[in-house]
Structure formats: C-alpha cells, structure tokens
C-alpha cells in the first residue's frame, strides 16, 4: 500500500496560540478532527480489503476487542460509539452474518442483547492488527505538521516523526503493536 501524495499545504496546521479568532482548545480540536478524518479515510479501504467490513463495523469490532469475552450490551455499544441504536442493529446483523460477532439475550432482561466477538473475529483482528496500526500511524504522520506530530507523539510515542512518503521501510516493516 503506498502513501497518497501529501503536501504541507494540504495539512491542517494549527496557528500559534493567540494568533486567531479561536481559543487554543478549539484550534486543537480542529487539528484532532483533521487527523481523525485522515485516519478514517485511509482506514476505510484497508479495512474493506483486509477484513471485508465497513469502517463503522470495524469500529464495533475494535470496541468489542477491548472488552471481556462476554462482550457488551447493544445499548453500551451504541452509547460508546455515539451511534443510533437502529443503525447499530443493522451493523451487528451484518457482522453476525459474517461470523464475526454473536448476539445473546441478557439473562433477566427480555429486551437486553449482549454482543461479543467470535474466535474468528479475534483471529482476523490478530492477523491484521499490524497492518492496521501501520495505516493509522502513516495517516497521522502524513496529516499533521511538525508541531502537531510532536504533540501527538506525547500520546503515541511510536508515531513516525517523518512523513510516510519519506520512509519506504514503513511499507515493509509492520509495527509490533
């Protein structure tokens, strides 16, 4: 997978503190949104190619991967992802047809539904996690300027400090994440 052409002018660069109309918190939020958008855009195709699921379905899988094997109630998944419950029901049904999640009734609650990853999903996520992590890392590195990358490195120490286009080794060396 090659990195798309990115140019410094395409990056959302946060102006210096106090130089614009917005306070620092809102400028930081805009940088975060731009970085998130870049990651989502890059991940969409990789997720479809490697997992054969939509980006929203991938988010459900990631959320469930970080939970105990018993999973979460559908209402919790909807709340944590900020998704309407009706849309989530459709996405869970798609994941269930693919054999990636199970749905079970919650004991003592007729309307409650628990969702959990299957062993197939855990195996698939394990096989693709290095590629997906590299995709995220590259998208973040490509979408931010030097100052934003430095700030993000405080949160993600493994984030590349050079744009991925300058790092041919990123395409051949998956991360150990």
UniProtKB/TrEMBL annotation:
<protein>
    <submittedName>
        <fullName>MarR family transcriptional regulator</fullName>
    </submittedName>
</protein>
<dbReference type="GO" id="GO:0006950">
    <property type="term" value="P:response to stress"/>
</dbReference>
<feature type="region of interest" description="Disordered">
    <location>
        <begin position="158"/>
        <end position="177"/>
    </location>
</feature>
<dbReference type="InterPro" id="IPR036388">
    <property type="entry name" value="WH-like_DNA-bd_sf"/>
</dbReference>
<feature type="domain" description="HTH marR-type">
    <location>
        <begin position="25"/>
        <end position="161"/>
    </location>
</feature>
<dbReference type="InterPro" id="IPR036390">
    <property type="entry name" value="WH_DNA-bd_sf"/>
</dbReference>
<dbReference type="InterPro" id="IPR000835">
    <property type="entry name" value="HTH_MarR-typ"/>
</dbReference>
<dbReference type="InterPro" id="IPR039422">
    <property type="entry name" value="MarR/SlyA-like"/>
</dbReference>
<dbReference type="GO" id="GO:0003700">
    <property type="term" value="F:DNA-binding transcription factor activity"/>
</dbReference>
